[in-house]
Amino acid sequence: MYNIGIDLGGTNIAAAIVDENGTIIRKGSTPTMSERDYSAIIKDMAMLALKLLEEEGIDIDDIHSVGVGSPGTPDPENGIIVYANNLRFHNTPIRQEMKKYIDKPIYLGNDANVAAFGEYECGTGLECNNLVAITLGTGVGGGIVIDGKIISGSFNGGAELGHVSINYNGITCTCGRKGCWEQYSSASALIRDAKEAATNNPQSKLNELVDGDLSKMNAKIPFDAALEGDEVADKVIKNYIKYLAIGIANVINVFQPEIVVLGGGVSAQRDNLIKPLEKEVINEIYGGKNAFKTKIKVAKLGNDAGIIGAAMLYKIYEKV
Amino acid sequence: MYNIGIDLGGTNIAAAIVDENGTIIRKGSTPTMSERDYSAIIKDMAMLALKLLEEEGIDIDDIHSVGVGSPGTPDPENGIIVYANNLRFHNTPIRQEMKKYIDKPIYLGNDANVAAFGEYECGTGLECNNLVAITLGTGVGGGIVIDGKIISGSFNGGAELGHVSINYNGITCTCGRKGCWEQYSSASALIRDAKEAATNNPQSKLNELVDGDLSKMNAKIPFDAALEGDEVADKVIKNYIKYLAIGIANVINVFQPEIVVLGGGVSAQRDNLIKPLEKEVINEIYGGKNAFKTKIKVAKLGNDAGIIGAAMLYKIYEKV
Predict the structure, then answer these.
(1) In terms of CA atoms, which chain A residue is nearest residue B181?
(2) Which residue from B69, B85, B139, B225 could staple onto B182, CB 3.0 to 4.6 Å apart?
(3) A130 part of contact set with chain B, CB < 8 Å
(4) Residues paired with residue A167 on neighbouring β-strands, in sequence order
(5) How deeply is A176 buried, as exposed, middle or buried, from its count of CB atoms within 10 A (0-12, 13-18, 19+)?
(6) Backbone region of residue A153 per phi and psi (left: phi > 0; alpha: psi in -120 to 50; beta: other values)
(7) Residue numbers of A between 176 and 215 with CB closer than 8 Å to B
(8) Does B288 contact A176 at a Cβ distance shorter than 8 Å?
(9) How far apart are CA B223 and CA B271, in angstroms?
């Protein structure tokens, strides 16, 4: 028995046939071309899935369900995306459209939540009951799984961990608030701060590593420069980790999960990030060292968390 | 069938016989005298409960369970308080001791969480599935109930909503962090700010209402002075509500509960608090006005939330 997992992104649709253990049997992708009508996008999602089945020689009868992770606010019960800004979805009937091509149970979730569920079921969280996933990318995404259920609020738009304000007079966020955590701990924030430090410190290795072209700055470069002993980059990284620790301590003080799992580009730094981060988090959490039982780990599934989590959604709704 | 609810406080033990609907049949209290050994305290809890039964003429056979809300970190499974600073509890076997006097199922929870559960089962949350309770008192307490379960983390010490930092360079909290929400939104914080404003503004009504004795300041006086048109007090209240809104928006962005229920002394202000608060919260939440579906309400059960919630704990553990 297999499930199909689909990760609908603003740029690409990724899909995979996934076995019961969460192993990807075959995967593929196709451009979203998000300017199109939803019906064309959903048709392409289905066609991609059917193509994978054909390529792999798997019969549709061996497919148990299709799961979809989508940006925006889902209504999982009715199989609808209530609202997704980037895709111009508004009460978009994903399940109904999908059923035209694949007549199987169709499950639906928000992409960040679904990726967290993937890590919970098949990745870092394999043997834990509670997990909070934090994605350090363009923004700071959040996904909360407690006792096998995705926690996203009564109106399915919660778990916006990046939009917890850690500085009420701080940097204005794209959401309109001041001091949202993602303005300090996203990869974008790190890149912004590294660029600023490079501009203010012409002697810094940061400039050398981007060949004097700040548009080449990415989230890896400040870590590389710091490792090479650059003091300016080291300060940028220390600051970044301080803010990350503040937000993670907020998460732990509320959820005390078994695991906080970090994903997104910055998490590729692994121990360069996790070790100093843990030291800062201990100083911030309620109850201090004795209360610090949550493990901070790097996501295992990487970009596949979304498709694997989508393929596993049936476990939530069928209460397997 | 009745249940006994016990709310163990640092100063008083409150207990009640509660019927299946959450109605208090008879209640009483006795001093905690927290300097005593735990066994003496727990014996008094049991004796108080038995006395209430005798006074009401209810047979012990008509009692289904005993629930206890205690400060500190519980281990509900094993019926132990792992740690409670004020009571000097350390791995204290509440269930085992209690069973010596009342041989019924004994259930246990953290006091703030249990009070939230009381509101959920029998108060403001009567017909909702998700609720976050926030107590504005000496500190800012939190209790989270989702689908009938108390969410307090894998290590039972979570839901510390008052220790979410909203200002990482802000006021140092008793917990050691900077900028914890409770430093801005507790009744204590309001009193602190009102005292400061009174000192800096001798002409303010705040001074008049405390008869020139700032030690008489409480959380009601700045609201009273503001209602009487005192500009200094009005500014204190506006600031207080601003901070409260920031923290509540953080809670909503994460949990999107059906209801945020406010308890503690400050919540007695009812519409004077809730109406301006809602306006501020709308400006702070992710998705703005359209996403604002959470209702902000004042707790219904007041000080009885703890004993009623304790009496209802069996519903969690017996999965009624």
Answers:
(1) A166
(2) B139
(3) yes
(4) B167
(5) middle
(6) left
(7) 176-177, 179
(8) yes
(9) 11
**DSSP assignment letter at B113:** H
pTM, full prediction: 0.94
Q: What percent of chain B has pLDDT over 90?
A: 94
- In tens, the pLDDT along B66-75 reads 999 999 999 9
Q: From residue A132, give the alpha-carbon distance in Å to each of A115, A120, A135, A150, A196.
A: 11, 9, 10, 10, 31
Interface residue of A180, A286, A319 to substitute, partner B, most B CBs within 10 Å: A286
Determine the residue among B131, B286, B290 to mutate to test chain A binding: the one whose Cβ has the most chain A Cβ atoms within 10 Å.
B286
Q: Are strands B63-70 and B2-8 parallel, antiparallel or unpaired?
A: parallel
**CA distances (Å), B311 to each of A236, B102, B142, B307, in order?**
52, 14, 19, 6
The dihedral sign for the CA sequence A205, A208, A214, A218: negative
With both helix axes pointing from N to C terminus, report the angle between B271-284 and B231-255 in degrees, rounded to the nearest 10: 50
When pLDDT is averaged across residues B181-189 and rounded to a whole number, the result is 97
Alpha-carbon distances of B288 from A176, B57, B278, B297, rounded to whole Å: 9, 55, 12, 19
Question: CA-to-CA distance for A166 and A247, rounded, in angstroms?
Answer: 7
Could you give the domains of chain B?
2-121+304-317 (3.30.420.40), 128-299 (3.30.420.40)
Partner-chain contact A283 B176, CB within 8 Å: yes
Alpha-carbon gap, residue A242 to A226, rounded angstroms: 15
Q: How far is CA A307 from CA A221, A315, B3, B318, in A?
A: 29, 14, 48, 37
Structure tokens at B138: 């000496």
Neighbouring C-beta atoms of residue A272, cutoff 10 Å: 15
Kindly state whether A169 is in contact with chain B, defined as any CB-CB distance less than 8 angstroms.
yes
Residues of chain B with Cβ-Cβ distance to A181 below 8 Å are: none
Distances (CA, A) of B140 to A165, B7, B160, B177, B266: 17, 18, 8, 14, 11
Q: With an 8 Å Cβ cutoff, are A151 and B287 in contact?
A: no
A58/chain B closest Cα distance in angstroms: 39
B-facing residues of A in 54-93 (CB < 8 A) are 73
**Residue A120 with chain B: CB contacts under 8 Å:** none
Q: In angstroms, rounded to a whole number, what is the distance separating the alpha carbons of residues B237 and B223? A: 7
Nearest by Cα to B145 from B162, B125, B170, B160: B125
A48 CA to centre of own chain: 23
ipTM of the complex: 0.94
- Encode pLDDT of B95-116 as tens digits: 999 999 999 999 999 999 999 9
On the CB side of B273, CA atoms within 13 Å amount to 28
- pLDDT tens for A167-205 read 999 999 999 999 999 999 999 999 999 999 999 999 999
CB-CB: which of B155, B246, B255 is closest to A158? B255
- Upper half-sphere CA count for residue B155 (Cβ side, 13 Å): 22
Backbone angles phi, psi at B88, to 5 degrees: 50, 40
